[in-house]
């Protein structure tokens, strides 16, 4: 094993250290400090395949833009042919001439192409499941796709198609309105999950229909004469049908204060496929066992912190005391500022990772709107930090739950997780190094990086008081729980309500924040493995740290370790491992790393 031994700090970032001054260093920093050593940076990419990956990304976007009606027959055909042709041509590449980074990119692209085809298969199966509810989908797709091919429009035929779609819609809706049996225990004609999925697909079809119609209406007199009224009637029917599917079949009452959570489990085979794309060899069941093992460590430390607070082993009582330590309205921005500067100073003074002046200074603080807090009850971050804190328009109960869930001890870990050395520093590097690897972005790298810092700063005694330790341990328990509840949901073993109850009982969440967490996890904005990626990515990085950091021959300093990860770009941690150890992967590489054994 040969480790990457060249120091990257100055080449990557320049220099600059935040001092322990009372004011924010950004106020006194000169703009010239933001300019790096341009000579050191004027070097070609380390990967021979960077342009190839960039070409794939650009071409894929164009094919998807053209065949834009998702899950139509044309979309499936075009994308499948695109991916399989790329597979064939990539296999013919002279792999032996590639260096470490080139082989990493070749392996990543090969893995990604295989997964894209699996995703097409998954989407085709889901489309088949909702087909009885949307038997007219291909007719709508055909209108848009004929426009894509620049075929002359036949207004009379188009009007007939619109009417045919409306009649097909009415026919599909009828059995949903009239149950097959008067037996109160009879199964509904369609599940809530399938109805919700169909309603979402209906929204996509309606957008395609509207785009098609606006292309001709007003520009072709005959088109408007034939189609304007059928289009109006069809749009009204689509709107009403979508509302019916959501409210009557899926049970999503828009007037309800807290709408039910309807996720769409992908099943065990789906999880295994996604894990293969992440180059992780564990089964979902094994990952749950790993989470339960980590939970045992957390339980021991929670009791230790509770005893140090004079509460014996009653960690729930200790957590309750910590939740009372919230700042008054209006003081949260100042708390975030102080915590952010403290963490940045800590990592810089110990030379743990390079923090460039520009990255240290330019993050922004934004307050999170109340509506967003329903799905993000805690802080969010990236380039900036979004602060969850109650507003004056919330009810008394909502205010208190938000205050308790965002107390100063919980915030102490979330602030550096979102900023420096967490996501903000990560986003700064992603925008500057190996940007082509954004194609391979994964929560195991994105979230694993920030959670690794929670691990590492714990070990470095950044979290010293028992109250701060309780705050940090709450989040550690939270990440264990995320693995368990998200995988059990997608395995079909738990309902969203069981996931909420688990977070309240096992972690100590406020019920409102637990509900928001589960809603966020299953509302479709995050991939199925996202929540598991935090803890599992951190465990992977912890194992790599133990493997490559040290003072022996060929080993790295902490700064080299962290800087190399940032400079390498986002990718499955198995590929980070190859980069750190400078391993030349074989053409037929398959993941075998048992990082948690």
Descriptive report:
Helix content is 62%, strand content 1%. By secondary structure, the chain is mostly helical. The protein has three domains: 50-130; 137-179 and 188-249, no CATH class; 267-546, no CATH class. It has a three-stranded mixed beta sheet with strand order 1-3-2, covered by helices on one side. Helix 5 runs antiparallel to helix 10 (267-277). The longest helix is centred in the first third of the chain and has 31 residues, at 100-130.
Summarize this structure as a short list of keywords or feature phrases:
3 domains; mainly alpha; globular; 597 residues
From N to C, what is the helix and strand string?
A: HHHHHHHHHHHHHHEHEEHHHHHHHHHH
Largest sheet: number of strands, sense, barrel closure: 3 strands, mixed
Number of structurally distinct domains: 3
- The count of DSSP E runs of length 2 or more, i.e. the number of strands, is 3
Strand percentage: under 5%
> Shape from CA axes?
globular
Average predicted local confidence, pLDDT: 92
How many helices does DSSP assign? Answer: 25
Which percent range fits the helix content?
Answer: 55-70%
Note the gap between the termini.
Answer: 21 Å
User: If strands are numbered along the chain, what order do they take across the biggest sheet?
Assistant: 1-3-2
Low-confidence parts, pLDDT < 50 over ≥5 residues? 1-21
Radius of gyration: 27 Å
Counting helices, strands and paired strands, the structural category is mainly alpha
């Amino acid at each position: 094993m040969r480790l990457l031994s060249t120091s990257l700090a100055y080449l990557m970032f320049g220099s600059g250290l935040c001092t322990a001054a009372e004011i924010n260093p950004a106020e006194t920093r000169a703009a010239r400090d933001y300019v790096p050593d341009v000579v050191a940076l004027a070097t070609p990419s380390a990967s021979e395949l960077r342009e190839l990956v960039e070409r794939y990304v650009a071409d894929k976007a164009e094919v998807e833009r053209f065949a834009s009606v998702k899950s139509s027959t044309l979309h499936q055909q075009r994308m499948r042919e695109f991916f399989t042709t790329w597979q064939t041509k990539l296999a013919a590449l002279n792999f032996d001439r590639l260096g470490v980074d080139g082989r990493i990119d070749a392996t990543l692209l090969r893995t990604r192409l295989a997964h894209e085809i699996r995703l097409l298969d998954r989407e085709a199966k889901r489309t088949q499941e909702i087909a009885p509810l949307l038997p007219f989908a291909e007719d709508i797709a055909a209108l848009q796709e004929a426009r894509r091919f620049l075929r002359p429009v036949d207004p009379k035929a188009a009007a007939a198609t619109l009417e045919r779609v409306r009649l097909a819609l009415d026919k599909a809706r009828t059995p949903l309105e009239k149950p097959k049996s008067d037996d109160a225990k009879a199964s509904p004609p369609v599940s809530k999950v399938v109805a919700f999925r169909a309603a979402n697909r209906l929204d996509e079809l309606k957008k395609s229909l509207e785009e098609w119609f606006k292309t001709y209406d007003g520009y072709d007199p005959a088109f408007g004469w034939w189609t304007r009224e059928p289009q109006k009637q069809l749009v009204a029917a689509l709107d009403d049908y979508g509302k019916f599917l959501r409210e009557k079949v899926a049970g999503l009452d828009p007037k309800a204060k807290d709408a039910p959570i309807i996720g769409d489990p992908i099943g065990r085979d789906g999880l295994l496929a996604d894990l293969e794309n992440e180059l992780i060899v564990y089964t979902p069941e094994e990952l749950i066992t790993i989470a339960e093992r980590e939970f045992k460590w957390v339980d021991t430390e929670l009791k230790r912190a509770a005893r140090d607070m004079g509460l014996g082993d009653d960690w729930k009582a200790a957590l309750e005391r910590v939740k009372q330590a919230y700042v008054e309205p209006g003081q949260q921005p100042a708390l975030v500022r102080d915590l952010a500067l403290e963490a940045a100073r800590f990592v810089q003074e110990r030379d743990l990772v390079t923090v460039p002046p520009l990255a240290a200074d330019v993050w922004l603080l934004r307050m999170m709107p109340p509506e967003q807090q329903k799905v993000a009850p805690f802080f969010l971050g990236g380039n900036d930090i979004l602060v969850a804190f109650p507003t004056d328009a919330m009810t008394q109960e909502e205010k208190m739950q938000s205050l308790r869930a965002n107390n100063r001890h919980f915030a102490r870990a979330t602030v550096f997780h979102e900023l420096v050395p967490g996501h903000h520093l990560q986003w700064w590097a992603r925008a500057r190094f190996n940007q082509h690897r954004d194609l391979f972005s994964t929560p195991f790298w994105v979230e694993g990086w920030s959670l690794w810092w929670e691990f590492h700063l714990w070990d470095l005694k950044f979290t010293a008081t028992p109250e701060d330790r309780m705050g940090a341990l709450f989040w550690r328990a939270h990440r264990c729980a995320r693995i368990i509840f998200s995988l059990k949901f997608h395995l079909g073993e738990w309902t969203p309500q069981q996931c909420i109850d688990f977070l309240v009982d096992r972690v100590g969440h406020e019920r409102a924040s637990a509900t928001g967490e589960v809603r966020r996890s299953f509302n479709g904005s995050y991939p199925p493995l996202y929540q598991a990626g935090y803890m599992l990515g951190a465990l992977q990085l912890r194992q790599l740290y133990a493997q490559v950091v040290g003072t022996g021959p060929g080993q790295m300093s902490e700064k080299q370790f962290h800087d190399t990860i940032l400079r390498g770009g986002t990718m499955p941690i198995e590929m980070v491992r190859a980069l750190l150890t400078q391993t030349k992967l074989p053409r037929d590489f398959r993941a075998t790393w048992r990082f948690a054994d």
